[in-house]
């Protein structure tokens, strides 16, 4: 998954908002803000990846083999 997808960028912007606001308020220097913004992009990418993984339905199991016509049926599995 590309780190520049729209949902990743949106999540990164939400996570970067407090950092940007602290920079505007003067609590963080410009250097500290620039240093922390890539971490916001990485956290956004991780959050979207986890959400996509959790939202993906499980893959269906492969169907059991059907015996060919005229072949003996396999024994029933033990219970």
Query: In this structure, how is the largest beta sheet organized?
Result: none
Number of strands: 0
Per DSSP, the total helix count is 2
Overall pLDDT confidence:
84
Compressed to H and E, one letter per element, the order equals: HH
Terminal Cα span: 43 Å
Proportion of strand residues? under 5%
Low-confidence stretches: none
Shape: rod-shaped
Q: Give the radius of gyration.
A: 25 Å
Question: Strands, helices and their partners?
Answer:
Layout: H1 6-25, H2 30-55
Helix pairs in contact: 1-2
List keywords for this structure.
58% helix; 79 residues; 2 helices; single chain; mainly alpha
Can you characterise this structure?
By secondary structure, the chain is mainly alpha-helical. The chain is 58% helix and 0% strand. It has 2 helices and no strands. Helix 1 runs antiparallel to helix 2 (30-55). The longest helix has 26 residues, at 30-55.
Summarize the structure.
This protein is mostly helical and 79 residues long. 58% of the residues lie in helices and 0% in strands. The protein is built from two helices and no strands.
